Amino acid sequence: MAPKLDLHPRSDGTSTTGSLQGQGAYARLLDEIRDGALTPGTRLTETEIASRLDISRTPVREAIRQLEADGLVEHRPRTGAVVRRLSYPEIMELYEMRVVLECTAARLAARSASDVEIAELDEINAEMAAATGNSAAAYEFNRQFHRALIDAARNRFLLKSVNAIHKTLLILGPSTLTEAARAEQAIAEHRAVVAALRDRDGPAAEQLMRTHMEHAQRTRLKLLRLRGDTPDDTREDVI
């Protein structure tokens, strides 16, 4: 028998149903930020979002608060909640941390991943290759590949840190895999990383992941430049 929903108000004035709606609104807004429907600087108006999602304003308010806690949304005086715009140094720092964390994950996975996990990574990458031309599917398989690799590293603190980085990167909009050439390159790079894991060669896996991350970073900066969205408001401290 399915558990009953607790409809009694919580201490913060919302019900369990409201909380579930808030999580749904949060997931929807995350998707819209990732897909570029909500671009940096976009104002998030409770009434507009509630009307669009056909829910009350309370779960929308809860979702916006959660996005603020994630660092994806900020409050501006006389404007309200808006999607954050990352500065150029912030983008570079995020990718720098992503390189450190995911390269470490690749090195650890070479030691601790089971044969089944390595085979699963290979299969996910093959499915990604079969999805060439479908950027949404490629994004999802790419996400699964990196998540499976990090899980195979067997370090819960590393996983938590990587999740935080990936969430902040959503502000930058659509995946770099929207470029067909980058998608094909990423698949080849994944394949090389899997081969290093199978050989239990930690240093090679780490270096191959570094190359993979650096290519992703260069593609990201290119896409931002082509969109005319390269942040330059705080570049005076960048030589």
From TrEMBL:
- Gene Ontology MF, one: DNA-binding transcription factor activity
Q: Can you say what this protein is called?
A: GntR family transcriptional regulator
Q: Which organism is it from?
A: Pacificitalea manganoxidans
- PROSITE patterns hit by this protein: HTH_GNTR
Keywords, alphabetical: DNA-binding, Plasmid, Transcription, Transcription regulation
Region: Disordered; residue ranges are 1-21
Question: Which InterPro entries does the record associate with it?
Answer: GntR_C, TF_FadR/GntR_C, Tscrpt_reg_HTH_GntR, WH-like_DNA-bd_sf, WH_DNA-bd_sf
Q: Which residues form the HTH gntR-type domain?
A: 19-86
Q: Which domain of life is it from?
A: Bacteria
Biased-composition ranges, Basic and acidic residues, are 1-11
